[in-house]
Amino acid sequence: MKALTYHGSKDVRVESVPDPTLIDDDDIILRVTSTAICGSDLHIYRGKIPAMEHGDILGHEFMGVVEAAGPAVTHLKRGDRVVIPFTIACGDCFFCTQDLFAACENTNSGRGAIINKKQTRPGAGLFGYSHLYGGYPGGQAEYVRVPKANVGPLVIPDSALSDDQVLFLSDILPTGYQAVVNGAVGQGSSVAIFGAGPVGLMAAASARMLGAERIFMVDHHQYRLDFAAATYGVEPINFDENDDPAEIIIERTDGRGVDASIDAVGFEAKGSTTETVLTAIKLEGSSGQSLRQAMAATRRGGVVSVPGVYAGWIHGFLFGDAFEKGLTFKGGQTHAQHWMPELLDRISNGDLKPEVIVTHHMSLDDAARGYQIFNDKQEDCRKVVLTPGLVAPASNTATTGQQPLPQLL
Ligand SMILES: NC(=O)c1ccc[n+]([C@@H]2O[C@H](COP(=O)([O-])OP(=O)(O)OC[C@H]3O[C@@H](n4cnc5c(N)ncnc54)[C@H](O)[C@@H]3O)[C@@H](O)[C@H]2O)c1
Ligand SMILES: [Zn+2]
Ligand SMILES: [Zn+2]
Q1: Ligand lying closest to the C-alpha of residue 99
Q2: What is the domain range of residue 200?
Q3: Which residues pair with 237 in a beta bridge?
Q4: Are residues 149 and 292 located together in one domain of the fold?
Q5: What is the DSSP letter of 327?
Q6: Fewest CB within a 10 Å sphere: which of 8, 51, 288, 394?
Q7: What is the CATH number of the domain that holds 253?
Q8: Mean pLDDT value of segment 3-11
Q9: C-alpha 197, offset from chain centre
Q10: Are residue 100 and residue 72 in the same domain, yes or no?
Q11: Mean of pLDDT over the chain
Q12: DSSP H/E element including 172
């Protein structure tokens, strides 16, 4: 089969690899119908995630049709159309029974990324996300083996829902939603979202749905901010024009700050030259720029919710400020399985339309170019969806959100 494989920084290739096979009794083999590129894949693409090996298959946002099922699969049958959560969870460990699926103790043979780990077991294995997270082959492929198939896959019974409408249940929609719920955002809340990428946009959609009154959004890609302003009514702040967005947010909230801030950027945040340089020579673990801004923009007693990925340490982490303001922090990998059913209902009844963020539909064959376009923010790219075997228009292999969507199933 064909799959998108990793060979080093900015070097990903679509290659022929062996087809996956059933290994455990509760595995399925999925024929992938749609798969997306995530901002988390860009950390790998830029060579920032350790424990990647040549030929590893990437991709953790995917859906498709059950091609084969092991004898212990009770929840699914061949032919079912399913969306797969990016976290692989056993369903019955200490954490899974509390719906903390990303903390599952039974699915990761890697070590995870904690530096001061002691004897703790690693959190859940992830598809296509390095040998720190179990080395599971990902779903940017024609076929993928899905372990723990009685726990993860969500059946989409309504064939009227297109792949684009439900694909983001695999990751970015639950991630944006969990970030907003963690921020205790509700009717009348004020919230500042740092990062207008797919996760920030899903957070904005979720905050709007839950009744937030004011949503500030910070980025430096004006086209992303313009889309968020037009679609979700956010108040955009471009940090290339105003290098202290938190100050502006405080000014506009009566000198107080917002109820919650969401850091949908993570450890590669731009805007601090010192940290960018120190990180490049490994004297700093992460850029703290977005996190510092999020903390500064949040009112006393508010919440800083962090879906953006962090790893290692940050020197410029002003914990005294957090203490003085009485901030609550919440974050981590998303417990996708927990949120997927209720979010499918929200899509079905029209409360959420995650598909509107898609700008690029490309064939899986063109996945390497998709990575480059998404990474370099070319062609006003917001989100790339890859379809195995998609026959592209002759003149342009990418279709934009303004054009009618191709028939994906
Ligand atoms: N917690 C989870 O389970 C989970 C799931 C999916 C993605 N993520 C993470 O969420 C983050 C965002 O993902 P994405 O798909 O939206 O990625 P993306 O790279 O498309 O978007 C990130 C955006 O942040 C902006 N940005 C950079 N520096 C900034 C700064 N200082 N202030 C404000 N904005 C800044 C960039 O311009 C970009 O538009 C990534 O770190 C990704 O790994 C986490
Ligand atoms: Zn992701
Ligand atoms: Zn578990």
Answers
A1: 3
A2: 184-331
A3: 218
A4: no
A5: -
A6: 394
A7: 3.40.50.720
A8: 98
A9: 10
A10: yes
A11: 94
A12: helix 172-182
